[in-house]
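Batch manifest line 223
LIGAND: adenosine-5'-diphosphate
JOB: complex structure
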Amino acid sequence: MEKFKRKHKYEGLLVVIEGTDGSGKSTQLELMKKYLQAHSYGVMVSEWKTSRLIANVIDDAKERNLLNATTYSLLYAADFADRLENQIIPALKSGFVVLLDRYYYTALARDVVRGQDIEWVKNLYEYAPEPDLVFYLDMPVDVLLKRIIGTTGLDFYESGRDVGFSTDFYKSFEIYQKKCLEQYDKMKEEYGFKSIDGTKSREEIHKIMQGEIQKILQSGVID
Ligand SMILES: Nc1ncnc2c1ncn2[C@@H]1O[C@H](COP(=O)(O)OP(=O)(O)O)[C@@H](O)[C@H]1O
Ligand SMILES: [Mg+2]
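JOB STATUS: finished
ARTIFACT:
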């Protein structure tokens, strides 16, 4: 078998799970982590907006409604930079399989919906290593809405309430998520997402992801 050629200069493997809020990313990340650990791979997981330096600042700013579109973009980019430097790259250098819950595609979708120029956003993340595999959990808005209402509830920013599409919570969620999905749709081809129907069962989705990752690992990319 031909050895898999990494998309970046590091030893490890960079795997991303993307998708809108409630699409099943955390669920799949957990299943994937367990699967890889059971096969003795070193795994490092990192989630969007969890940097020790910046995450609290973003939460505080959101709580007090202090963010505008530009500070929103820049603070998230700073959070990303901190995690990249302190978690992601060190783990890649050490040969880990790095599993990421969201990557800069999230910023591209959300920031553009908030009115930023796409090239400006791309420049903010230009230095980031290209992932070896990007899974995208594709979910129609109506299914998403039902799932979100039944579980986590409507988040202010995930409903784009800061952008002011509508004063109605549900309407705002629908418009905002639709706009985000449009951006993700555009990125599918450009970035070679492995798009998976997010309405499938947890197990079905896991099997598909497992198959893709197995193909790479079996080629002996990580010893
Ligand atoms: N394939 C699936 N089918 C039905 N429900 C799911 C599926 N995947 C996840 N869920 C449920 O949907 C909710 C959101 O899933 P979660 O993994 O937290 O999404 P995300 O991390 O993308 O926001 C959770 O309650 C989870 O148990
Ligand atoms: Mg999650």
